[in-house]
Amino acid sequence: MRRATVIFLVVIVVAVALLYSSIFIVNERQQALVLRFGEITRVIREPGINFKIPTAFVETVQIIEDRLLNFELEDLRVQVRDGRRYIVSALVVFKIVDPRAFRENVSGSLNIAQENMRTRLDAALRRVYGGRSFEAALSEQRAEMMVEVRNQLRPLKQELGLDITDVRIKRTDLLPEVSQQTFERMRAERLAEAAQLRARGTELAARIRAEADREAVVTVAEAEREAEIMRGQGDADRSRIFAEAYQRNPGFFEFYRSMIAYRTALEGSETTLVLSPDSDFFRFFGDSQGGGPASGATAGGSVLDLRPGETPDADAEPEAAPTTQ
Questions:
Q1: How many CB atoms neighbour CB 316 within 10 A?
Q2: Is the domain of 34 the same as that of 113?
Q3: Which residues pair with 23 in a beta bridge?
Q4: 137-186 tens-digit pLDDT
Q5: 3-state DSSP call for residue 43?
Q6: Does residue 246 belong to any structural domain of this protein?
C-alpha cells in the first residue's frame, strides 16, 4: 500500500514536471521560435500560452524581442568633402520583423546583430558625409542625409530580418584642432562681407549726397533767378509808380524827394554843413513851394549846426560864416 502511494506520487510529480516543461508563455513584447534538434519548426508571433514537446533535447524555445529597439554609434570620426574631419553620433531605431532570418544569420543574438549594424552604419555615414560639405550637416540637408543613411541600411531586412525604422544624427561637431581654424575662416568671411557692405553703403551715401548737393544748387539757382526776376519786376513797378506820381504832381514829387534827401543827409551823426543859404538844396526851407532861399539868410552865407533828427528853425539866426583873409 505504501509502495503504491509512493509510485503514484512519483507519477504525479513527473506528470507535473512534464506539463510544466511543455508550457511556455509569449507576451505582447515578444515572439518565439520553436526549435526541434536546432531546426526551426514554428514561429509564434501572437502573445499567449503555447505548448511544445516536454523534452529539452527534442524541442526548445528561443524568445526574440518584438518591439522597437535602438542602437547608438558614438563619436565616429568622419571626413567631409573638403578634407576636414569631425565627430558624429547617430541613433538607429529598428525592429526584428523576420525571426527566422534573424536566427539563421546571427543565431538570434542581438549583440551579434548590433555589431553587424555598427559596421554597416559606420560605412553608410562615411559615404553620406564624404560627399557633402560640413555646412550641409548643419542645414536643411540634414534630414535628407538621415534618410539616405537609413536607405543604405535597409538591406539588413533581408539579411538579418531587421527593419530599420529611423536613423537620427544626434551630434555633429568639429574636432578640437579644426574648430578654431573653422572659426577664424568664418570670421574672416564675415569681416570681408561686412567690409563689402560698408563700401557699398559708402558709395551709395556719396551718390545720394552728390545728388542732394546738385539738387540744392539747382534749387538755390532757380530761387535766385526767380528772386532776381521778381526784384526786377518790383523795380520796374517802383519806377513806373514813381514816374506816374511825378507826372501827376511834379512839384509835390520834388518836395517829397527833397525831404528824403534832408533826412538822409542830416541824420545818423552830428554833422556841421557849411552851405550857401541860396543853395538849391535849401530851396524848400524858406518856401514850401521851393520858390526861394531860407528866410534870414545873409548873402555872405551861414553855418547851420543841425543835430540828428532836427530841422532848421526859420526864426533862428544863423551864425556868420567864417571868413578868410
A1: 10
A2: no
A3: 51
A4: 777 788 888 888 899 888 888 888 888 888 888 888 777 766 677 778 88
A5: strand
A6: no
Torsion sign over Cα 243, 245, 249, 252: negative
User: For residue 264, what are the contacts with CB-CB under 8 A and spacing of at least 6?
Assistant: none
Question: What's the total number of domains in the chain?
Answer: 3
pTM, rounded to two decimals: 0.49
Secondary structure of residue 314 in the 3-state scheme: coil
Return the closest-CA partner of residue 31 out of 21, 44, 17, 20: 44
Same domain, yes or no, for 74 and 31? no
84, 134 Cβ separation under 8 angstroms: yes
| Cell numbers placing 220 | 538755390
Distances in whole angstroms, Cα of residue 34 to Cα of each of 64, 97, 246: 11, 16, 139
Q: Which residue has the cell 558614438?
A: 74
Nearest to 108 by CA among 30, 211, 177, 207: 30
| pLDDT tens track for 279-317 | 666 666 666 565 554 444 333 333 444 444 444 443 444
pLDDT at 103 over 80: yes
C-alpha dihedral sign at 224, 225, 229, 230: negative
